[in-house]
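protien #1 (seq + structre)
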Amino acid sequence: MKQEIKHQITHFDAVAEEYFTARQDANHLLMKELLWTFFFGANLSLRKPDMKVLEPMCGYAENKEMLERYLGSRLSYTGFDYSSHILRKLKVIHPDINVFQQDISTYQPPRETYDLIIIIGGLHHVPHIAGSVLKSLAKGLKTGGCFINFEPTHGNMLFHKLRETIYRSNPAFDSETERSFLLEELTAMFQNAGLTLCDMIYPGLLSYVMYYNPEAFPALNIGKQGTVRALFKIDQAFMRSTLGRMFSFATLSLWKK
């Protein structure tokens, strides 16, 4: 196992419990619900019967329930993560879930198997190998299969420098191994993996900053659910705009093989 991966496992195991607890927050959960409703509302064609879904770097498999809600409860979900600490807890919470321990840097998916692969906030933990990881994962998609990705990105250098400063000073992040992507860099990696862009939105705006990472920024988690809805509605107007692209701290994209 590469040293960078070992470092990531050690870091995430150290913050895993705090991460899990913080992400039960009502404002965080509402922000995610609003975001995914907005995203899937524009991509209804994703829903197909009996889908096979793979989630690398699945964490606590929070996205399984979300996918079942928007894509249908009959989907077949498989997930893996490199943290044994997380998987032990996950098996207690969901004893029947199909997840296993695996290092993404060495994982080779069965070819032409999955209708959908989804990675939420995972590639920026392995930026040194993200391009090769995507090429390997793409082999596991069926022809016509889709890839959903949500990653920290930056569209201007000021935000890039700001995020670097935050990563160095906030113990929730591991500045030695993780970093955000320049949007053009992220796009090029997916294209080099043989995937075609279908949709891209820029949700990393005010509601994201305040509510998406409560474990890292608890002081920003202010207001009640009415505030979350109001801020998200404002952000929504910019999520497909040039202005949103420039100032967003994250990008959500849909790709097709």
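ok now protien #2
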Amino acid sequence: MPLVTQESDKKAAAIEALKLVRDGMMLGIGTGSTVKYFIDGLSDLVKAGVRLRAVATSIESETLARNAGIAIENDFSGQLDLDVDGADEIDAEGNLIKGGGGALLREKIVAYNSKTVCIIADSTKFKERGLGEFRVPVEVIPYLKDMTRKQVEKLGGICIFRKNGEFVTDNGNLVMDCDFGIIRNPADLETKIKMIPGVAEVGIFTGLTTLALISGAGVVEVKKFRNPVSP
């Protein structure tokens, strides 16, 4: 019997997500280690003749997708058919913490503009008692960044610029990793952080997840959520 590991669970969730892909779809492709397995699977579909177009949430994912033979669009004005992405944490209501890879701004744009948002993850990412073990990434414009940090900290967080401010996103911004403890009201905190001038985006995602494919011990569990926010 094959050994079940965290990596094999990531791959299992990604393979399950491939069942949602249909010929002619316009996809959103997320970022992260689990999504890499999804892109590998898309490559096999393309080789089999499935026609796909996509937007990618990071330069890294764009490169991987192009190498897999997927047609990447640099801009798109319509609604995406399916967005497949990972998460650093997901709770029982489908709320997420994302941005461990630094792609949170593009990831949220893509998720918001997708008909279906499918999150793929191994079971360690599912948090029954709520979000907050993983620090909340906040993308910050470099101008007067310490002012922005102080304003976010007024909401009860302890914020540290990633890699002492040397981590720069694909958008040219910085990322703060913020510890708020267990987050009791993710939607409220998301809104309050986003309203602070200097914040480009916050890595709390609420009301966007359509379904999650959570793999643990080699078994993929499908979790469905209420209709997400959409344009």
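The radius of gyration is 17 Å.
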